[in-house]
Each structure stands twice: as structure tokens, then as C-alpha cells.
Amino acid sequence: MAKRKRSSLPDADTTVLTPKTLPVNVASVDSNMMPPQPVRRTSSRRASTQVPPADIDTNPVTNDKIKDGKDALRASPDAEEPGAGRKKRKTAVTKVKKETEDVEVEEPAKPVMPATPIKKAVKHDDVDREDPEAEGEEDADPEELKEALSRPPPVNSSYLPLPWKGRIGYACLNTYLRASNPPVFTSRTCRIASILEHRHPLKDPTQPEHATKNRPDKDQSADVARGQAYVEALGLANARDIPKMLRWNDRYGIKFMRLSSEMFPFASHDVYGYKLAPFASEALSKAGRVAAELGHRLTTHPGQFTQLGSPRKEVITASIRDLDYHCELLGLLKLPEQQDRDAVMILHMGGVFGDKAATIERFKENYHKLPQKVKDRLVLENDDVCYSVHDLLPVCEELNIPLVLDYHHHNIVFDADKIREGTLDIMDLYPRIKATWTKKGITQKMHYSEPTPSAITGRQRRKHNPRVATLPPCAADMDLMIEAKDKEQAVFELMRTFKLPGFDTFNDIVPYTRNDENKPWKAPKKPKKAPKKKKSKAAEEEAEEEVEDAEPEAQPPPVIPDEEVGMGGPEGRVYWPPGMEEWLRPKKREVKARDPEKAKTTAERAAARRAEKAAWQAAQEAGNAAAVTDTPASASASASKIADGDPGLNLEKTKSVYNMAKPKKPARAPPSGGKKKSAKSVPTPSESELSELSEEGTEQDVDMSDMTDAEEIAAPVAKGKRSAPTRATNGRSVKRKAVNYAEGDED
Fold this sequence. Notes:
It is a single chain. With 747 residues, this protein is an alpha/beta fold. It is built from 23 helices and 14 strands. An eight-stranded parallel β-sheet has the order 7-6-4-12-11-10-9-8. A two-stranded antiparallel sheet has the order 1-5. Strands 2-3 form a two-stranded antiparallel sheet. Strand 13, helix 17 and strand 14 form a beta-alpha-beta unit. Helix 18 packs across helix 19 and helix 19 crosses helix 20. The longest helix has 21 residues. The chain is globular.
């Protein structure tokens, strides 16, 4: 049995008692203290706070606290979150961290998905509801592949519902509007931690919230109403984007859309839930007026955890609370009678919990307990794990519930004893399925999607293809929901393929370019004017003519009205080819590959400098300049030994090697103003001059600092004290006089 959850927040209509049975004002409780345990609410969602919604930044580009709803990003709610790991187990105990303590919650069994069509003998205790769209999960064991490949081929109908007269729609998210600036979407959400954080006031309440400079101050007391105002602001931002999405759809021939269940974050939560009417009535009614004006159909699809057949009471309570939230959302749209009747809530039967028949009976029992307003909107859909059309159709006929036929799910889960895989045999059930809709006066709808081309096994086939290639054999006036990850682009693909109404309203986007946004504009810099000089009258007249003929100054682009921002521009450039979603955003700056030597990291360069410095210090400390016998290449090896602390290193030798390896200073450059002086040529002395020089060389010292080795050996040096060169007799002149060009006696 699951332990009771705890929370630091009591309900608005709940009195919290301390161990001394004294009432406590939650708003005054220090956020650092352990709060008392609240009483779990058994009634419906609490009323919204009287504090107006907060004025916050709801743009996820500039506020990293705003997240995308996970269900809206998927092809459908039952196609779970991409990237989730695959784990098969019968019972899992998950530690759920609440505000004050960790609580262990026991989850229901997660059965393994069948790879073959459903038969009466197949058990569903091990249905695996982990992510069918996770990447890297396509591998299957050989037995599973062999069994999947041996199944009978599908039998499909060749009928196409053309000319098309119905409505085609997509689910929850518009990829083009989501990538616009500012983004337009209806699935902004957050984490519960953000709600708790925003119960504290900002550090500077007079300034708008900033991600780093002006965050909530947790040192100040928390207020439940302030946190509630934060989450309500997200819901209002979502609701206010609905009219924009509807008008965008209408411009391009789309008349059908599913609203995101995450439009109002945590609205059906048992602790943080709230009613919509007190703060969202006006925004939702405005969206409803636009939908009525454009003849747009709106529906919802509660998540896969809303299950009325569960054996757990807490799951049933949460499911009813979630259905009540969706029903209130659709009711506040205030649609005309028929459109309001067509605004349905699609639901799956859920798991089988070991006994399919018993689960169906529990569903019937709990369905009768639902409010009438929920019953009026509830419809059932066959799924791709447990329940086939043959399982649900009798239930729908008995309880007067419309049945949504999902072709993709039907090709994975069907009763092989009664029907074959494909779209042909299921057409025999069309009259019975349609009767479940007409009996309640609701316009029929169907779901269509396709598996990825490489899918083989049942699990692999659950993964939705980003776009669909054809139309199902439905009625030509059907409301068809396309469940694909490319959302509205999948609808455009069908329009282009079959020339459906609206196919000529859109064009391909220009890669990485948007011409329907107001971008910041800066005037180009003007060239600097040369200093004015006195000109003749003729020159002044010519300059005036040049000024008149010059191009006018650059003007900012025209401002795009708010209602046209993100609408595709006058040419309707809103279509992006398959796989080219990156074209919706500005192109990333390309970094050219650098030379490997130049691409060394800072750490590598720093390590080389440290090794060089260590070698130099070791050479200085040694203080003994030994004869240089090693090559300069050994300097780097010695440096590495010093850096590694080699005890056997000869520091004296290292000093001389390092000094030899040190680079020589470059020659001094000639003065910038003059030419480089060329060396003067020395004339070859005669025999008489040589004899004079040899005699003079015995009387004066010789400066051999600039001589070559041969000259140094040949030059005679006096034993006396060498006199310093004077201004008249500099070093160079002394050298010239002291050089002995005479050949040796042996020669």
C-alpha cells in the first residue's frame, strides 16, 4: 500500500493543526522550518487565489524557468517522452521527493508489449508502456524479429477520400509559430520547484524578474498566493496564444486542432491544483469567439495516466479530477452549440491490470459516477498496447460513448480471430463506429499516423513517423487528426501530395531567414569626413552635385503589425522540407577548423610554459656552467624530467643545455627613417702594409670580440694592458689595425 504523501502546502480550504492542535497561518511559516503535515483534499480542485496573475517573462528563450509541455512535443499523448529508457519490470518503487521528505510510492505493473496480434489467450499483465519513440531502442532480439517478420502481410484498401471535404488537423503545437520571435504556443509549463520558489517576493519588487539579477528572495517569508499567481500567469500566456494559432491555421486551410492538456500547469494536481474560471474566463472566451468565427474544431486528449479502469482508488480520484479540469477548459471557451458538442475529450481505457474483463467492468462502474458534463464530452480510442476496436466497440455501444478509430493503433493491436491487419477489413465496422457518434449528435473524427519505414517489431511500429504519406480510407467529410511529430507540416505534406484545399496558400521557407518578424535595426555607420579644405567655386559646385546624386540614407524596414508577426509574410513561406526543421531558426555561426598547432588548448600551452620555467630555474639553482656537449634537442627532454621530478637529473648539465637551447635575440632593426647600412669593404693590404701592421700589433691590444675563429688565432696579442677605445679610435678601427693578414711561417 502506498504511503501517504506529504507537502508543505495545505489546501486553501484545509485547516492545518500542529501537534498542540493550534491553527497555523501557512503564509507566516518560515520557509526554512519544517511545515506541518496537511490534510489531503478529497474534494475537487480548489478555487483560484484572489491575487492577480503575476507579471512575468513567459518567453522560454529569455526565461529558462519556462519549459515546453512534454505531451505537446509528442505525436500523441500515448507516444511517451522521447529519450526515456526502456525498463521491463512488474513492480517498481519510485522515490518521489516532495518538499519536506522522500515518500515511496508503489507503481502499477508495467507489462511487455505483444509482438503479435491480440488473441484471447494473450495476457496483458506485462504490457510495457515505456517510450516507443526513444532513439536507440530499435534493436530487437532475433526471436522477436523472426516472429514479427512471419506475421501475415497487411491488407489495405485502395480507396482514397477524394475530393476532400472534411477538416484535417494537428495536435497541440505549431512548429513554425513555436520558432517565431516571440514564440507562440500553448504548452508553457514549469516545475513545482518554480512554484515554491515564487512564493517568495523578488529581491527588488519594483523591477521585473531577472534570471540572475532579480530572483525571488528566499530569506523573506513565503506566500502561497504569490506562488499561485506565478503558475496562473503561465496559463494565461498559453490561453492568449490560442487566437493567434487559430488565425494562422485558418490562413493556410487548417480547421481542426487539439488543445494542449498542459495549457494550465498542474491545474488538476491534488495539492497544487486550481480552478480556471476565476482568472482565465476572459482569455478562454476570447479564444472561443475566434474559433466560432473561423469554424474551427477544438478537442483535448488527457494523458495516458487518466485511467478509469484502474484498481487503485487514488488513480480513479486523480483521473476524475483531470477529466473535470479538461471539461472546465472546454466549457469556458463558450463555443456555439454544435462546436461545443464537437469539443470532445479523447481517453484510452488504460492497462488491463491482470484481468481485462474485470478492468472493463471497473471502467463501466466508474463511468456511471462521472458528472453528466464529463460524460457528454468523453470518447474512447483504441490503443496500440492493450485494447483493440473489438474490445471497445461493445463498451461504447452499451454506455453511449463515441469510439475514435485510430488506424495506426489498429494495425498493431487487433483481434486476429476476427480481422486482418490493414485498413480493408476494418471498413466493415464503419457503420457501427459511426452510429456511436450520430447517436449523440457529435461530428465523427478519426486519428491517422504511420510507423517509421524501418519498423519491424510491434514496439518499433509504435513509433510515429514524422509525416504521413497517404490518406486513410475514411469518409470524405471526416474530421481527421494527423498525429505526427512534424505537426502542421505533416498536414501541409498531405495537402501538397493530394492537392487538398489550401495546398496553394503556402510556400517553402527561405533557409534560416524570417521575413515576418520585427528585428532590431541599426543604421549603417557613415564614413568619416575628411578635414575641410578651401576649394574653388568650381570644386564646391561639383561637390554639391555629388551630394545631390548620392544615395539617400538607409531607412529602417517597415514595422510589421503585431497581428502579422509570425504569419509567414506576404508569400506565405511557412513550409519546411522533411528533416529541415533547423531552417526555422537563424543559422549557427560556423567555426572553421584551425591549424592543429594553433588549436592547442590553453592548458597545453600553460603546461609547456611551466616546463620551460622549471628548466630555467633548475639551471639557475645549479650555478655550475658545465661544458655544453649535448644538442639543443635535449633541453626539452631535461625540462620534462624536471617537471616530473626526476631525482637522477644532472642540474649542472641541464643549465648549459638550456642556455644553448634558448633562442637568440633577433638583430636590432635598422632605423625606420633611413636605409640599412651596408658593411664597408676592406681593401686587401699590400706586403709593406702587412709588415707595418705586424710591427704595430706588438705595441697595442687587439679587440677580438667580433673576429672569426681564424682571425682570432692569427691575430698577435700584446701581453700588456689593453687600452679602452676612444671616440676617435673606436672598437672597429682597432680591429682593423690589429688584424694580421700575414700567412704562417709554415706556408
